[in-house]
């Protein structure tokens, strides 16, 4: 150590100056880097604030690390920097919205897969509902680990509202088209009913006319029958008196009495008059039935006796039930239960019975053509009409069954359709069941169903609420 102390001190001083210079330079460089960093941060913020999207990023725990101006505005913050350290539950959105965003973030971070185009509603800082289209992507560190999430979204409220309006407009249009369709169907049904009503009305008039014409001579006959019986009794009484007063009759009279078989006449004449009375009673019953049926054009609901309706319809169809070239008469089996009168449209219900019964007759006639008369005798065609009170006396059930050919699988789903018929042109119109169903279900709030077994027969089941006829008069006045 030959260096003197002063020179050592000098060296130290020089070194200190050099070090200070280096430190000074270091400080200046650092200042420059920091300025540069601030400038690039400001540029980045400026870029982010200029974009139309709202931008935000969060750490793995859902805490905000930063956002741009748009996002800060939506979140009701004065400054984007104020977001630091806050989470979705500190934001003005509802708890449900915050939950939803959280679960979305977690999904993206767990799957490490971005999600684009998520459309969702949100309440903004002013409490208005807006629609957002959001994109979310995982943020990675240098080692590729997910450290958070970057999200952007755009306010698509206007587009969304336009879409919703379009959708509503579309739905309205579809509804209107549907309404138009049902109006059209309704119109078609009304038209069909008008046609059938017209026929029923014509038939009703005819029947009413016949009933009226029958009535006069029947009254005339029944009015005279009783005195005629008395006159006959009186005549025989006088004859007896003559015979008592003149035990020995002149031979010419005696002979004539024997020729005329006066004793037989005396016995038979009262019987003849009694059976004539029976005949007159039957004609009167027929006339009453005809009048019941002919009230087909009653436009308001009245109390209706189901059995009278069925019987008068059977009477009108009697000519079709009786024997013909192909077959013996169709057997009609009535199993009538105890029924109250129901509230209904008389003519319309008769129209239903008419349609169902004539369908059964058509079906039986069709098979009879393929069978021999003898076969028909041995296995008779039969229509069974059963009535009962059901559902705690709230409902009347009427079943019209036949042992005809049944309804084929293919026809089953179509038989209630308008114009569906399996009958030849001129024979079937395909309207009977469509109209009957409408009358039963719409005018009377009842049901019309059927069961059928091929080659065994068919049965049509009508249920009608006892009280329940539609209180309104039918739409189409007959
Ligand atoms: N009792 C029945 N037995 C067999 N088929 C039936 C019976 N009732 C109805 N159908 C079938 O339903 C079709 C439609 O009946 P309907 O609407 O009354 O029209 P239409 O009698 O004019 O054919 C008939 O063509 C027939 O095929
Ligand atoms: Mg028919």
Task: Describe the protein's architecture and organization.
The protein is α+β, with helices and mostly antiparallel strands and 478 residues long. It has 4 domains: 36 residues; 105 residues, 2-Layer Sandwich (Beta-Lactamase); 115 residues, no CATH class; 181 residues, Heat Shock Protein 90. Helix content is 55%, strand content 18%. It has a 5-stranded antiparallel sheet with strand order 2-1-5-4-3, with helices on both faces. Helix 4 runs antiparallel to helix 6 and helix 5 crosses helix 6. The longest helix is centred in the middle third of the chain and has 89 residues. The relative contact order is 0.06. The structure holds adenosine-5'-diphosphate and magnesium ion (MG).
List the helices and strands and how they pair.
Layout: H1 5-50, E1 54-59, E2 64-67, H2 69-74, H3 95-111, E3 115-123, E4 129-140, E5 146-155, H4 157-245, H5 251-260, H6 262-294, E6 302-304, H7 306-316, H8 318-321, E7 331-335, E8 342-344, H9 346-368, H10 373-378, E9 382-390, E10 395-402, H11 409-412, H12 432-443, E11 447-453, E12 457-465
Parallel strand pairs: 7-9
Antiparallel strand pairs: 1-2, 1-5, 3-4, 4-5, 6-8, 9-10, 10-12, 11-12
Helix pairs in contact: 4-6, 5-6, 6-7, 7-9, 9-12
The structure holds adenosine-5'-diphosphate and magnesium ion.
Reading off the top of the CATH hierarchy, the class of the largest domain is best stated as Alpha Beta
* Rg: 51 Å
The SSE order reads HEEHHEEEHHHEHHEEHHEEHHEE
Shape: rod-shaped
Structural class: alpha+beta
Percentage of residues in helical conformation: 40-55%
Largest sheet, strands/sense/barrel:
5 strands, antiparallel
CATH architecture descriptor text of the largest domain: 2-Layer Sandwich
What's the number of helices?
12
């Amino acid at each position: 150590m030959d260096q003197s102390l002063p020179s050592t001190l000098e060296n130290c001083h020089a070194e200190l100056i050099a070090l200070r210079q280096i430190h000074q330079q270091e400080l200046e460089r650092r200042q420059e880097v920091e300025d540069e960093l601030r400038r690039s941060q400001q540029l980045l913020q400026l870029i982010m604030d200029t974009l139309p999207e709202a931008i935000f990023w969060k750490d793995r725990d859902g805490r905000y690390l930063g956002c741009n101006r748009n996002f800060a505005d939506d979140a009701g913050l004065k400054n984007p920097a104020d977001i630091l350290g806050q989470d979705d539950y500190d934001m003005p959105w509802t708890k449900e919205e915050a939950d939803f965003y959280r679960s979305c973030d977690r999904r993206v971070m767990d799957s490490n897969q971005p999600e684009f185009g998520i459309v969702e509603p949100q309440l903004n800082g002013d409490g208005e509902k807006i629609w957002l289209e959001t994109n979310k992507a995982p943020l990675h560190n240098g080692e590729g680990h997910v450290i958070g999430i970057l999200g952007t979204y755009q306010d698509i409220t206007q587009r969304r509202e336009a879409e919703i309006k379009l959708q509503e407009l579309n739905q309205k249009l579809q509804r209107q088209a549907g309404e138009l369709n049902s109006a059209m169907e309704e119109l078609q049904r009304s038209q069909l009913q008008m046609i059938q009503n017209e026929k029923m009305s014509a038939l009703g008039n005819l029947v009413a006319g016949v009933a009226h014409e029958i009535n006069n001579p029947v009254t005339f006959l029944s009015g005279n029958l009783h005195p005629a019986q008395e006159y006959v009794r009186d005549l025989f009484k006088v004859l007896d008196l003559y015979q008592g007063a003149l035990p020995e009759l002149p031979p010419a009279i005696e002979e004539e009495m024997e020729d005329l078989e006066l004793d037989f006449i005396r016995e038979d004449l009262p019987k003849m008059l009694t059976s004539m009375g029976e005949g007159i009673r039957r004609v009167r019953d027929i006339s009453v039935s005809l009048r019941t049926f002919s009230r087909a054009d009653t436009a308001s609901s009245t109390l209706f006796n189901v059995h009278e309706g069925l019987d008068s319809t059977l009477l009108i169809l009697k000519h079709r039930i009786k024997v013909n070239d192909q077959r013996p008469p169709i057997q009609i089996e009535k199993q009538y239960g105890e029924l109250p009168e129901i509230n209904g449209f008389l003519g319309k219900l008769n129209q239903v019975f008419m349609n169902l019964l004539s369908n059964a007759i058509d079906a039986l006639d069709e098979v009879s053509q393929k069978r021999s008369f003898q076969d028909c005798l041995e296995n008779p065609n039969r229509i069974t009409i059963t009535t009962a009170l059901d559902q705690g006396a709230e409902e009347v059930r009427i079943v019209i069954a036949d042992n005809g050919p049944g309804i084929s699988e293919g026809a089953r789903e179509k038989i209630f359709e308008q114009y569906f018929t399996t009958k030849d042109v001129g024979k079937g119109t395909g309207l009977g069941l469509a109209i009957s169903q409408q009358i039963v279900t719409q005018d009377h709030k009842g049901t019309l169903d059927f069961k059928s077994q091929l080659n065994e027969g068919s049965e049509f089941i009508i249920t009608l609420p006892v009280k329940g006829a539609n209180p309104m008069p039918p739409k189409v006045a007959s």
